[in-house]
Write a structure and sequence with these properties.
single chain; 6-stranded parallel sheet; alpha/beta; 3-stranded antiparallel sheet; 2 domains
């Protein structure tokens, strides 16, 4: 049985473990610095598995020894956003957390693929790759699946159709300058621009960009966790089962879309080696300009790391 380690047993990490345990594709290790918390959540989840008929093993720990030999390490540890905070406000504190997590996890799992969720996402994925020295195939950021899922949910609700009929693609940095590709999105094959009035589509695009902040303002003491965790589980499954699945994800670019030396949300094909390839869409002038604006924001965030 493959092994997946989740660093950070807060709401997102624990919920990721929940989604993965239901899939029954890997044993799970939950790691957190808070004594007793990952152990308690792991034990609770383990005791739920007979109810759902899943035979995976789940363990919690405050150190990395139980994670040895992990196939995938998912990084969710970090400070969550609070009302009024941007993702960039978390950069200094979370960079220290991510650096330590990468070093300690790879010390016992040198062959692991890293999936990064910690915000600011694109900068933290960049940090993880530079600290680890891993090739780009083995470091991937989760963002676009979540942003695209938010947009799909809003479109499905607006049109009263199944979410399974809605295909949306959100690229760019995981921030307010993300780029929902309305021209490439559709509802059961009908282009989104034809399915929705322009003002309603514009409202959905704006709500998608602010989707995380909307939840932060409602919760007041935390940030989203159900949807980010489900997106992480989809990425883990795509890799472990070698699905060759194309999803929006943050990948290290080496010239794709005319961009280099940054992590950025693009259509990424995922399989057992991690990132298999970046799929390049044809963009019009407006889409390309929006993508470049988003890239500038990501570069600024990366520059703040001082690497």
């Amino acid at each position: 049985m493959p092994k997946v380690t989740i660093v950070g047993a807060g709401q997102t990490g624990a919920t990721t473990a929940h989604w993965l345990a239901e899939r029954e594709i890997a044993d799970i290790v939950l790691i957190d610095v808070v004594e007793g918390m990952p152990q308690g959540k792991a034990l609770d989840l383990l005791q739920a598995l007979p109810v759902i008929g899943s035979d995976v093993h789940v363990v919690g720990a405050n150190d990395y020894a139980p994670s040895a030999g992990s196939d995938i390490v998912v990084l969710t540890a970090g400070l969550p956003r609070k009302p009024g905070m941007s993702r960039e406000d978390l950069l200094a504190a979370n960079s220290t957390i991510v650096r330590k997590a990468v070093e300690e996890s790879l010390a016992v799992s040198p062959g692991a693929i890293l999936i990064v969720l910690t915000n600011p996402l694109d900068a933290m994925a960049y940090l993880a790759m530079k600290v680890s020295g891993l090739p780009r195939e083995r470091v991937i950021g989760q963002a676009g699946i979540l942003d695209s899922a938010r947009m799909r949910a809003f479109v499905a609700d607006e049109l009263q159709v199944s979410v399974q009929n809605v295909a949306c693609y959100v690229l760019g940095g995981h921030g307010d300058e993300m780029v929902p590709l309305t021209r490439h999105s559709n509802v059961a094959g009908v282009p989104l621009r034809a399915a929705l009035k322009s003002e309603r589509l514009a409202a959905i695009v704006e709500r998608t960009r602010k989707g995380g902040g909307e939840i932060v303002s409602l919760l007041k003491t935390g940030s989203a966790f159900y949807a980010p965790a489900a997106a992480l589980a989809q990425m883990v499954e795509a890799i472990l089962l070698d699905r060759h699945l194309v999803v929006p994800a943050s990948a290290y670019l080496q010239g794709e879309y005319g961009l280099k030396d940054l992590f950025f949300g693009v259509p990424a094909q995922l399989g057992r080696i991690g990132l298999e390839k970046v799929v390049e869409y044809e963009l019009d002038a407006d889409e390309r300009a929006a993508l470049l604006r988003s890239a500038d924001q990501v570069r600024s965030s990366i520059a703040s790391l001082g690497l």
